[in-house]
UniProtKB/TrEMBL annotation:
<keyword id="KW-0408">Iron</keyword>
<keyword id="KW-0663">Pyridoxal phosphate</keyword>
<keyword id="KW-0479">Metal-binding</keyword>
<protein>
    <recommendedName>
        <fullName>4-amino-5-hydroxymethyl-2-methylpyrimidine phosphate synthase</fullName>
    </recommendedName>
</protein>
<comment type="similarity">
    <text>Belongs to the NMT1/THI5 family.</text>
</comment>
<dbReference type="InterPro" id="IPR015168">
    <property type="entry name" value="SsuA/THI5"/>
</dbReference>
<dbReference type="Pfam" id="PF09084">
    <property type="entry name" value="NMT1"/>
</dbReference>
<comment type="pathway">
    <text>Cofactor biosynthesis; thiamine diphosphate biosynthesis.</text>
</comment>
<feature type="domain" description="SsuA/THI5-like">
    <location>
        <begin position="12"/>
        <end position="221"/>
    </location>
</feature>
<keyword id="KW-0784">Thiamine biosynthesis</keyword>
<dbReference type="InterPro" id="IPR027939">
    <property type="entry name" value="NMT1/THI5"/>
</dbReference>
<comment type="function">
    <text>Responsible for the formation of the pyrimidine heterocycle in the thiamine biosynthesis pathway. Catalyzes the formation of hydroxymethylpyrimidine phosphate (HMP-P) from histidine and pyridoxal phosphate (PLP). The protein uses PLP and the active site histidine to form HMP-P, generating an inactive enzyme. The enzyme can only undergo a single turnover, which suggests it is a suicide enzyme.</text>
</comment>
<comment type="subunit">
    <text>Homodimer.</text>
</comment>
<keyword id="KW-0808">Transferase</keyword>
Amino acid sequence: MQTFNLTATGHNLNYLPQYIARRHGFFQEQGLELVTKIPTPWDGVLDALAAGEADMALGGIWVPSMYRERVENYTVFAQIANRCPLALLKHGSADEFKLTDVAGKTVLMKSGGGASVGLFFKMLLRENNIDARAVDYIQDLDGVMLGNLFQGGMGDFFVTDNLSARAMVEQNPNISVAMEMVTQGDVPWSVYYRETATTTPEVMDKQRRFCLALAKGIDFVNNTDPTTYQDELAELFPNVPVEACVAVTNQFRNNGMWISPVIPVEGYNRWQLGLRDARLVSEPIPYKTLVNSEPALESQAPQPVSSSGAPAMNGSTRIAVAEAKTISSVA
């Protein structure tokens, strides 16, 4: 059994297939013992990589994007979350809410785990022809602090993770969910990466086996009613009502949060445009420059077959794999 050390930026429901894969022995089936550490503050993941204490980091792709050719080159080899796991809360009823309603208002956004919250929300505004500068933001505070302040009356809207949003709404009838951003299209939200210079064939073999186990975890979550393993959800997220965990898991399952370890090209390109417009990169980074999809692609072949004899791969996964194979085949 080989130890595979992971340093992660947090403990989140959008990482659920990885947790399931570990709890159900899928990594052990691949000869890997997954050991996870979550540093505080979150950017300690980069220190862990640099010190050789971790084989890979899990977090936002915006970090290896903005670091490239400036500080350190990282190679991204897989994803776990294919969509944004945030929600937009508002005071009062969310009936007839439109995204344009945020213009001229104050939006609270947690930032303790990095820049992703603000990056995605402002990109979403731009994509909907809403001037992001027409909104006032309070985003330099801890998420729990902002949540308490929002419930106390600060601001008009609050962007936080979907699970916390559901839990807050269940406890406070004066707040409602205006938008669950998992419905707002593909982006490689959470990815695995390490330094390009230290990625050897031996490392890639571990990555391939990791992706095989992760793909099995994704398949389990997508095809299993979460009420049948709600005890595990309660153990993983003890501070949130299990009903909220089940509801958010189903919301994620139904909206393409988890499709494959393979990063879809279209979602990648969309996020790169968002990072460019946020000035984190000067120009979008080509897919193949930042992503080596070989370990993730190998995890998709051969595919298990369904009862009809067809490959057990949904449409989104087929598209993601086909796109990534096309990019990988280009010299």
